[in-house]
Amino acid sequence: MNNHPFHHTQTAHCESGVISNLLGHYGLRISEPMAFGIGAGIFFAHLPFVKVNGVPGTTYRIWPGAIFQRVCSRLGVKMETAKFSSPEKGMAALDTVIATGTPVGLLSSVYYLPYFPPSYRFHFNAHNLVVYGKQNGQYLVSDPVMDTVTEIDPESLAQARFAKGFPAPKGKMYYPVHVPDVASFEKPVKEGIQQACHYMLKIPFPMFGVKGIRYLANRVKDYPAKVGERKSALYLGNVIRMQEEIGTGGAGFRFVYAAFLQEAATLLKKDELSKLAAELTQTGDLWRNFAFSAGRVCKSRAADNVSYKELSEMLLQCAAAEEAFFRRLAQVKF
């Protein structure tokens, strides 16, 4: 494969950032927004029956691994992927591959990565990073959300790769075994846009896409009456955490997707995509405003229905904006 030194670029989100850095290492230049868009990464779901650290799960992006799988499929990249039954097997396999000079993508838990500040280390098991070598017993790490490369000791890396909980990473590692010298982005961009519109507008279940934002809005309004003051703050706090701290955050994903549409507008010579990109950044601002107001409610432990009702209305505003945006995007003729 390629034995050039690994080039680290800081990105907004771990999965699309690893795609950009890994494929770039093999000469296939793809920006983080382009990877996110081709992989149809923008999404929304609220899953009260899927508990994350004991509270209902909310996601502002497609499930972990989907962006990677879609980008590789659409660009003709072949990946070797493996999971392991024990840390010993997983670490031995990693050592074997990096000894050949091949950078390896890993799934990990943020909690066990010592180079993160303590306030950012919590139990989130779907963080992607790249290990590109080993020196003096330390693994050399390119974590796309960090501004520079770093190192990690074997014990911490093994803990991060084999953390318990949902979803269990099981030592997952992946690396390219075939990267095309050139790839046309036009068709993958169109397919990514069409898939994102479908997932945001057409899934028939109420927890997903634009329907999912409205579903969350209705639940938030009733939190104080249904789960009490303490749980209301915990539930709302997790919605904010998933929006503003996990990877890029809900608003951040909207800004990344807007950047993708700007690139796509140039690539496909479609000015209307550029206009839609500007519109989506305004939706990102709506999400940021919601997070700010929700944070204030959490900190004050205010359990009066007025505050939660206002938050519910802000979410309904986000839903209306996203529905209008994706309907217009779905109508773009390619």
Automatic annotation (TrEMBL):
Q: Which Pfam family, just one, is annotated for this protein? A: DUF4872
InterPro entries from the UniProt entry:
BtrH_N, DUF4872
Give the protein's recorded name. BtrH N-terminal domain-containing protein
Species of the source: Chitinophaga solisilvae
